[in-house]
Amino acid sequence: MGPSDASTGPGRRAGRGIARSGARALRAFWARAYVRVVAANRDLSWILFDVALPVLGTAAYVFVYRSLRAPEAYLGFVTIGGAMTAYWLNVLWSMASQLFWEKQSGNLEAYIVAPAPMMAILAGMATGGLFMTTIRAVVIVAVAVAWFRIPLVAVDPAGVAAAFVVSMVGLYGLGMSLSSAFLLHGREAWHLSNLMQEPVYLLSGFFFPVRALGFWVSVAASIVPLTLGMDAMRQGLYGPEAAMALLPLRVELAILAVLAIVFLLAAWWLLRVMERLARREGRLTLRWQ
User: Fold this and answer.
1) Is 4 exposed, middle or buried (CB count within 10 Å of its CB: 0-12, 13-18, 19+)?
2) Topology relative to the membrane, per the entry (predicted)?
3) Terminal-residue alpha carbon distance, the chain
4) What is the pLDDT of residues 26-50, one digit of tens each?
5) Rounded to whole angstroms, how far apart are CA atoms 201 and 3?
6) Confidence at residue 246, expressed as pLDDT on a 0 to 100 scale
7) What phi and psi, each to the nearest 5 degrees, are found at residue 123?
8) Number of neighbouring beta carbons within 10 Å of residue 113
9) Residue 253 is inside which H or E element, if any?
């Protein structure tokens, strides 16, 4: 076999094909993430809707706990919960419902026929949303801490960081899964998002230790990664006893890691189903269908 055969052999051609596919996936990922990264600076309406309003809700719980002379850790609980509302709203309205909005605006057809995997587009959407929401969450925590002088000194900083990372991967994996599921339900996406928003505030324990709901209710609510994520972050901040922990920190981290893998695989499978239906029936990308 001569040098020209080696340069054009099946193995090399396959390698070039994989490299081109990877480059296209990276470009699609960054193109979708870039929109949300830039929007964090251009559309400042989020200061009112995503910062001021959650801070007011958090303030109400702070005043309630202070009037009851609750331990200082409870003020930290509601601060973390107030910051996490920004992530839940972002996942619900800008991830789970996003493909439905893209369909209504006529962009979904372009996504389907684009020579890049839909997972790359959804991953870019999730990464951009995570960046944008993290800015808002940091502002919420800073305002609440400065206003109420809430102590947020972590007893286990590594545990807090690990809990945040795995819960965010799981949460945005859930959002990626729901995006295809909501699209398959057509115009019901709006109602499904409304239906899921408020109950999760209660069942995931955004403003109180989730263990207060009872062990089995808390375990059932753990299907939403924020439930164990917030419980683990509170343990890392105040210790398991003060946080009224549901499960040991390491156990919660392991469960969150499993949830993250399961939701990402579910997102990949549901996307394949959605793309197959879109190409076979030709109606899924049509508006008002």
Assistant:
1) exposed
2) Multi-pass membrane protein
3) 57
4) 888 888 888 877 776 666 666 666 6
5) 65
6) 93
7) -65, -40
8) 10
9) helix 249-281
